[in-house]
């Protein structure tokens, strides 16, 4: 919500009139940018669910049958990967809401009481 008054920021909906911005759904006329749903007709884009025929890409739900992929919830048997909800029992993982007792991590909603954190909506008064 901040920025210099009276200045357009293209990624916030402004930009030069009549100019396409690829990250807003445009791209080369008649093609679009593949990561936004466009692309050259008849071409597979791996990040859209394709991959090697009969296998697919493991990070999209495919992969070699019977193989565990850690980023899909596996990991060491009985533990899993902490960033997916597993981890060693009774251990705090900071990125799961912990942090220093009674404070927490400011970017997860904690922080020192009475202190403003700019990335939580504060900033210099009258600017944001």
Task: Summarize this structure briefly.
The chain is low in regular secondary structure. Helices cover 0% and strands 0% of the residues. The radius of gyration is 22 Å and the shape is flat.
Structure characterization notes:
With 128 residues, the protein is largely without helices or strands. The chain has a domain at 41-127. It is 0% helix and 0% strand. The termini are close together.
Profile the largest sheet. none
Average pLDDT works out at 60
Shape annotation: flat
Q: Name the beta content range.
A: under 5%
Oligomeric grouping of the chains: single chain
Helix content: under 10%
End-to-end distance? 6 Å
Class inferred from helices and paired strands: little secondary structure
Q: What's the count of strands?
A: 0
Mind telling me the C-alpha Rg?
22 Å
Number of alpha- plus pi-helical segments: 0
């Amino acid at each position: 919500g901040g920025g210099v008054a009276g200045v357009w920021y293209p990624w916030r909906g402004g930009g030069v009139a009549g100019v396409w911005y690829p990250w807003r759904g445009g791209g080369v006329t008649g093609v679009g940018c593949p990561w936004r749903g466009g692309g050259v007709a008849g071409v597979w884009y791996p990040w859209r669910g394709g991959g090697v025929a009969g296998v697919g890409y493991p990070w999209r739900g495919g992969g070699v049958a019977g193989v565990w992929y850690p980023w899909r919830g596996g990991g060491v048997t009985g533990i899993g990967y902490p960033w997916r909800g597993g981890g060693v029992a009774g251990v705090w993982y900071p990125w799961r809401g912990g942090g220093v007792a009674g404070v927490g991590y400011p970017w997860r909603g904690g922080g020192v009481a009475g202190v403003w954190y700019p990335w939580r909506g504060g900033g210099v008064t009258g600017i944001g």
